[in-house]
């Protein structure tokens, strides 16, 4: 039986096969190795397929969304740690960022700091916005010392804090009286770490120390600005000027204003208001008036607050005629008096017994649409009555009633006894009752009844 079919050249094939027998073991070795390699390759492909499947089920992007969607920060951290235990798994930086802020905003500060330390050991590019949010978290929680430490944590990440980070930390520190000195120390040493304080940094501390009545430190900071090539701004000068005025050191405040003007700064209205008020309180009215006149030349138009401040200053010191001059300057400079202007001036004139002038300004304010306070009307009426000018007193009442205002009962009580001196008491009582019965109806305003009473009084004055 022939195992190999007969065909031309079969003898040669058998001969060649027999000649190859000595090499059969070697052939077998290479064939086995080939099959093993194919099996290993197939196994690697299967593992890659499984790993790819696992990755698709829990990719960094999917875990990031899952962590972000969790309202419970502790559950979010468990998911984060579970994903970390996956072989060859690496969270995205966004997952770290989200979880750190979730823990911090929910008050888990120790967990946040622990996770932040773990992040430091990873090779991630950390954004400065993360630390901005952490500083805000500590600020909102009222934890100034933790906010201060964040400055140094940034340095551990080999990240130089920005000026905005420094300023936010300083704001948090100075909000607590016990941390104002640490804030000052941080400002002094920040340049050692390459962080340069700006104008805002100095203003924050100057404002805090001025409010604490520690002007020496505030002025020291102001002088340090020039040494560190930091240019002060309007707020820097305003803060210090207000501090000096608050401590009644108005001369130093005026000197600072002159320094400000010499350096080319244009003071704002609040600086002038502070200085004018302080000068008037120190009874330096001449200096206050000069400053008021100087404002326009220096590029700041005086407003109603500035004029009223000086008017009040003059009236307080019994110089109502000078206050009248200020009111005239107001109009000439295009600034029209308001209710406060008139009330202050009329009150000042009455306090000096200048009732005729006061009456003139009352009529002026009524024509301008302003209503005098009932106490002011009472003051003028009483003043006229005391000097025997009953007709003028009634004239004031007539003007007030025509304007639609009702005098106070004490004002009527002041003038009625004067009228009763020329009329018998019984007749006066009967006339008043008749007027009130005639005029007061369910729909009648009290001012209408008052107008009738005023007309009666004027008539009685005219016939006597």
Automatic annotation (TrEMBL):
Residue stretches of each PPR repeat: 127-161, 198-232, 233-267, 268-302, 303-337, 338-372
Record keywords, A-Z: Repeat
One Pfam match: PPR_1
InterPro entries cross-referenced by the UniProt entry: PPR_rpt, TPR-like_helical_dom_sf
Assigned protein family: Belongs to the PPR family. P subfamily.
Name by which UniProt lists this protein: OLC1v1022479C4
Organism of origin: Oldenlandia corymbosa var. corymbosa
């Amino acid at each position: 039986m022939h195992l190999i079919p007969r065909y031309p050249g079969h003898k040669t094939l058998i001969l060649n096969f027999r000649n190859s027998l000595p090499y059969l073991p070697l052939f077998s070795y290479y064939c086995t190795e080939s099959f093993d390699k194919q099996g290993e390759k197939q196994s690697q492909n299967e593992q890659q397929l499984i790993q790819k499947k696992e990755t698709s089920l829990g990719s960094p992007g999917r875990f990031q969304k899952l962590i972000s969607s969790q309202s419970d920060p502790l559950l979010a951290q468990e998911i984060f740690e579970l994903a970390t235990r996956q072989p060859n798994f690496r969270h995205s930086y966004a997952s770290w960022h989200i979880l750190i802020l979730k823990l911090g905003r929910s008050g888990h500060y120790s967990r946040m700091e622990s996770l932040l330390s773990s992040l430091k050991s990873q090779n991630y590019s950390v954004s400065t916005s993360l630390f901005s949010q952490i500083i805000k978290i500590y600020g909102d929680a009222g934890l100034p010392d933790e906010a201060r430490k964040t400055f140094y944590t940034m340095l551990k990440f080999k990240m130089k804090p920005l000026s905005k980070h420094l300023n936010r930390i300083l704001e948090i520190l100075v909000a607590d009286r016990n941390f104002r000195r640490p804030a000052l120390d941080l400002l002094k040493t920040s340049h050692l770490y390459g962080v340069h304080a700006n104008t805002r940094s100095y203003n924050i501390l100057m404002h805090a120390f001025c409010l604490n009545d520690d002007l020496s430190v505030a002025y020291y900071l102001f002088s340090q600005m020039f040494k560190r090539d930091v240019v002060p701004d309007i707020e820097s000068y305003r803060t210090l000027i207000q501090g000096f005025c608050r401590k009644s050191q108005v001369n130093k405040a005026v000197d600072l204003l002159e320094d400000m003007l010499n350096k080319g700064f244009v003071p704002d209205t609040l600086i002038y208001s502070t200085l004018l008020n302080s000068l008037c309180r120190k009874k330096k009215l001449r200096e206050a008036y000069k400053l008021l006149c100087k404002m326009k030349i220096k590029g700041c138009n005086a407003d109603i607050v500035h004029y009223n401040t000086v008017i009040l200053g003059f009236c307080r010191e019994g110089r109502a005629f000078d206050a009248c001059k200020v009111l005239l300057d107001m109009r000439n400079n295009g600034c029209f008096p308001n209710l406060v202007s008139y009330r202050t001036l009329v009150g000042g004139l009455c306090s000096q017994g200048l009732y005729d002038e006061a009456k003139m300004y009352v009529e002026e304010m009524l024509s301008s649409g302003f209503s005098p306070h009932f106490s002011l009307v009472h003051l003028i009426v009483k003043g006229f009555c005391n000097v025997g000018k009953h007709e003028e007193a009634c004239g004031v009442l007539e003007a007030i009633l025509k304007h639609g205002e009702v005098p106070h009962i004490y004002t009527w009580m002041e003038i009625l006894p004067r009228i009763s001196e020329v009329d018998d008491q019984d007749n006066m009582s009967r006339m008043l009752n008749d007027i009130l019965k005639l005029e007061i109806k369910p729909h009648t305003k009290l001012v209408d009844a008052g107008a009738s009473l005023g007309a009666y009084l004027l008539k009685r004055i005219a016939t006597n």
